[in-house]
Structure formats: C-alpha cells, structure tokens
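Lab meeting notes turned into a lecture example. A postdoc, R.K., suggested we walk through two folding results consecutively so the class can see how the record format repeats. The first protein's sequence and structure tokens come next.
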Amino acid sequence: MRKEIEQAIALLGRKDPKSLDKALELLQGTVFSFSMKVCGQREDAEDTMQEVLVKSLPYLPKFDSPRALLVWLYRVAKNRCLMSRRRSKFAPKHDLSLDQLMPDKLELELLSKEGPATPESQAIRGQQARRLREAVQKLPPQYRIILVLRDMEGLTDDEVAEIAGLKPGNVRVRLHRARLFVRKELAQQDSAPLAARKAAARARKKAATAIPPRPASCKAMFAELSNYLDEQLDDSMCEKLERHLDGCEPCKVFLASLESAIERLRHLPPESLNREGASQLRRELLAKFPSF
C-alpha cells in the first residue's frame, strides 16, 4: 500500500479546503508517477493524471478504505495509459517466452567470469535512469503494467491482480518474465561498446552450434528465481534451489544480476511533476465542485 494513498484518505476525512488540496496533490503525484512509467511520455502522463482526477473527484468522499481508492485510481489510470496515442515503438507485441529470456551456456560462463557487480559499478549504473526507463518501455504493455505496479509502485501481488484483472498466479508469471526482460536489456546496455558487443554476438552465434544447451537443472531453477527473491517458495523448493546455487556459480551470478535489476527498478527516481501546472489544475477542479 502506498503511504500517499493512506495520507490522502486521512486528509479527505478532515473536510477542510487546505486538507482537500493536499490530498489531491498526493493523488496527483501518485497517478503522474505511475503514468510516466507506463506511458513513457510526459504529455500522455499529464493527460492521464488530469482525466483520473476529473473522474475521481466526485467520488472521493465515498472512499474510506485506502485499498479501495488505490485499486480504483490505478485501474482508471491503467486503462487510460493503455489507450495512449503515443505507444512505444520498441515494445514487441507478442508474449515473452521464458526460453528466450534465459541465458545460454556461453552467457552463463561469461557471467561467471565477470562475477557479481561491484558497489562502484552499481553506483555508475545507478546514474543511467534514462536507460532503465527505456528498457521498461520496450516491454509489451501487458508485462509493463505488472512490472510498474509491482516493482516500481510497490504494490502487492493481490493488489496488482485486482487492478489488472488477473489471477495472482498469472501476475507472478508476467512479473518474472518482465524482470528477466529488463535484466537482459540492462545487461546488453551495460556491457562493452557497440563494436565489441557485435563482435561478441557474432562469436556467440558461431559458437552456439558447438555449445551444449543449458543443463536441465539450471533451466528448471530459472523459472523460480523471482519467487525465490520474493520469498514465495515453499521450504523444500527453496532448499533445492539453494543447493543448486551452491554448486553452480554461473546461476548464482545470474541471480545476482536479476536481483540488481529489480533493485534498480525499485529505486528509480520519479520524474518531477510541474508543480505550477498541477496547482492550477487543482484550483480549476475544486472550482467546478464548490460543494465538495
């Protein structure tokens, strides 16, 4: 549950103009932040924020549950974002295949040689917010929505499922594949310069025929990595995965790279809202509802 929603509900209960303005300001920030991550375009995010506020204002006094308000706001914003006129030109329209997101044996070997990221390299990559946003925009919309709600907005699986109209199990599947997609994009961006990457790609393609497929035990573990990181595995499966990791350095490094990508998503700084424009919008809306 986002604390801004809880604060907004508390402020709405005071029923005075100053508290109402502050509550709307909190809701503006929440909707704009979500919309920027999903739409990727400031104009679309601002249009979404305005439409959601216009629709929500007459109903706000009826909400006494932060969770109910949260689900309603995100659902309206999600629907508006999906109708955005400026869709990402990068996002593939097909479903993400787990096999396509898994590394081959060569990539695992390279990961093992490179080792886990150092704090210094993490700090450098942490400055590349633009590239992280671009990676998110390359996700198909049905995966992007889940990733943004769960990892970037901090909602629970149940809240995401209710907003997206999915079963929690389907949320977990899409979340894992979205995380793997972003991890793969970031790994490609953070690697060597373009010429070296192309040379490495050619070498991988040439060597692929001679490289055995991933061990079946590794492949089985990959499907459970998000559940492991989110502490959603039962004890027996958790012990099995940890035993595998103890004896498989490439998988251990891959898990660290996935965890790093998730942490970068969770700590991506929000893009700032135009405060003057947002304040003007609140004044115009409240003028239309003088009895609110």
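The second example is placed directly after the first for contrast:
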Amino acid sequence: MTCRESLLFTSRRALLLGGASFAASAYLPRFARAADGRDPRLVVIILRGALDGLATVAPVGDPDYAGLHGAIALSTDGPHAATALDGFFALHPSMPEFARMYQDKHAAVIHAVATPYRDRSHFDGQDVLESGFAGPGRVQSGWLNRALDALPRGERVMSALAVGPTTPLVLRGPAPTVGWAPVTLPQADDDTAMRLVALYQHRDVALASALSQGLQLEKAAAGTT
C-alpha cells in the first residue's frame, strides 16, 4: 500500500471485517470440518489501491533497504518497531493480527510476485490481476469464478460471496455469485475525495468533472462551502 493509499486502510479493514462476519453468519453454510479442524472456506481480498510490499513486509536484513526506501523504511527498533518475522523480513507494526497468524503458521508471505503486465495503466493492471489472463481486454469473467465453475458439480455446494456494491471482475462469470454490501459506508473525507478527483482526471476527464461538481453540490447542500 502506498503512503497515500494507506489512509484508506482503516475503513477498508472495517468493511472487510464486517463482510467476513456477515458471510460467516448469514450466507455461508455450516461445513462439517475434517478431523484436522481445517476450514474449507477461501477468502480472497484484493486491495485495489495496491500494496507496497516493501512497506508491509520489509527486507530489513538487506543492507541497501533503508537507504533506498528512505524515510518510510521500517526498522526493528525504536518507538514504532516492525515485528521481526525471521532474520531478514519484518512486518509493519500496524498488523499485529497478521504477525500472530504468521507465528502460528496460519499465514505466509509470497514476496516479489507480479503478473506479466508491464504497462502503466492501473485499471488495466487491475483487470489482468482479476481476470487471470496475460493482458487486458474485454474480459467477461474472472479466474476465481472460472475456478468455481470448473469444480465437479457435487463439490459446488455454495455460491461465492462478493462483498461490495458491485461484483468484482474476479468473481464474474457463469458460476453463481451472491453479492452483499453494508447498508451504510463511512463518508469519505475531503482529502480522499480530492484524491479520487485527481485520479480520474488522468483516466476519465468527464467522470472527474461530474464527481467534482457532485462534491461541490453536496457541500452547498450541507452549507459547508
């Protein structure tokens, strides 16, 4: 996650936690667990704002890391020390639950993995990540939905659950999908709204203009202009 996008982490985490609780209690069936106690559910979380691996799981054992990463480099000492994972990598201190899961061998980190897409469109890169194809294009299905559809019919005992206002590309396709979104989402602050406007100005000028006008009208209606 980049520095700018890290501002979205708290609300995104709250959304994911709420969605996970809802899924577990309402939509997903009660599975009979195997003797080893493992849960057969698969949860896939895609961070659309990207994730800076070097600011999340940092190679603090690399002598060049601190110099190259500058002021945002993690350190294993000091008031906000990163959590050491092994003799080389350390985890950002804001992720204590992940650290616990890692130590319990319930989580793993796969570093320096990427799709073959090398152009500079964030949106096309996102489609490649979710579609599972080598390049962008008019793709109508995602790799996770196709995986569900490929399961033997007897093993397809549940629908996939998409948490959000729309079904993401990764879950679009022939396999049945259930969608859910929270009734209310926290209002984006002014800084986040302006970042969205700036983002769309590079991609869709008409949408950026409409969004900017909408934000201005909202302020006028609230009497905050």
